[in-house]
Every structure is written in C-alpha cells, then in structure tokens.
Amino acid sequence: MEQEIVKVFNEQHQQIGTATRAEVHEKGLWHETFHCWLVNEDYIYFQVRSSQKKDYPGLLDITAAGHLLAVETVESGIREVKEELGLNVDVHEVVKMGMTSCSIVSENMIDNEFCHVYIYHFKHDWDAFVLQYEEVSGVVRARLSEAEAFFLGETTTLNIEGYEYFPDGQRVRIVRPVGNAQFVPYRELYVAQVIKFTREKIFNQTS
C-alpha cells in the first residue's frame, strides 16, 4: 500500500508529478484524498480506526476515506465506502460538498491533503456494515446538533454510540463520551463545516 502511486500537487492544486504514498508522507508532498461522510437527519457517523493501523490506531475518523491513486478520478474514490464499510454506494447517490485542504504533522509523517468531500444520506441500520478489519474496527454516531457544538469548541465532550465489529460476526455496543483526543486531528472546524453543510444543504435544517 505504501508503494501505491498518487498524484503530487503544489499548494495551488496544480499537478507537478507523481510519487508513492510513502514518499508523499515522508516529504510532506500535497496529494488528493476522498472523504465520504455518512449522515442522516439526526446523526453523523464516524469509523473507529483499526488497532492494526500504523497511524492513529483506535481513533475516530471520517466514515470512509482514502487516497486517490494517480490513475483514478475523484469519483473513483467512492470505492472506499465499499472497501472499508461494505456498503454499495453509487457516486450518483452522494452529494459533493467540495474540496478542502488539510495538513497534519505527526512524528510519523507530514500529511498534506487536498480532500474531496462527499456526503451520503445513510438510510440503513447497523447490520448494513461489513467492515474491512485491518482498516476499520467499528462504526459510531453522534447527534448532529451535539457534534456541531463539539467541533465548534462549544463543548468538551461528545456522546457517541455504535458498535465494535469482529470477524466472527459478533459486535459489541459502544456508548460513551469522547473528547478531542479520541479523534484524528483534522483541521479545526472541518467537521463542523461538514455538519453545517449537511444540515442546511441536504436536510434544510437550521441550527
């Protein structure tokens, strides 16, 4: 996976070449990712990253996301929803929010991303998920109104509920409050912007 080839960009999002995933993270080169958030009128969903992951194991993250390979279009990224969550979602079923940039510096890597953000109206129940266990160990959700306040910094904890899933078909219920330390450190206000877009543009809600 680290040897997969991705497009490399300058800060103005102009392509300047290609590199391996390992190289872009080692050198902090700008590259493209695909983000798909599962939402409904009441909730936003997060994946629980597998404990086997090299980066941010066990933390809460975008519902489904991944790197766009050099040979892929942006829309090809919809495959991540099937690969990680087991959901068959057509690109025509998602709403494009737009592109944002995100930069995360950790001791393991410099991750500079142009993120293509999509929203999927999730109408199924917990049985719909068939997880890719080396990538995702669970799925949880939080109420939109509570999540918006949390990611705007108005509250310090967020109540989540969901399940940890196991390869043998078993699942264990998760109900607990979490804080910022339990989330992958994406750009401040990013998730709040996703929620605002979801409420206003998809469900015609106001805060």
UniProtKB/TrEMBL annotation:
Nudix hydrolase domain: residues covered: 29-164
Recorded coiled-coil stretches: none
Keyword annotations: Hydrolase
GO molecular function: hydrolase activity
UniProt cross-references to InterPro entries, sorted A to Z: NUDIX_hydrolase-like_dom_sf, NUDIX_hydrolase_dom
Pfam families noted in UniProt: NUDIX
SUPFAM superfamilies cross-referenced by the UniProt entry: Nudix
Membrane-spanning residues: none
Domain of life: Bacteria
Name of the protein described by the UniProt record: NUDIX hydrolase
Species in which this protein is naturally found: Lysinibacillus macroides
Species classification: Bacteria, Bacillati, Bacillota, Bacilli, Bacillales
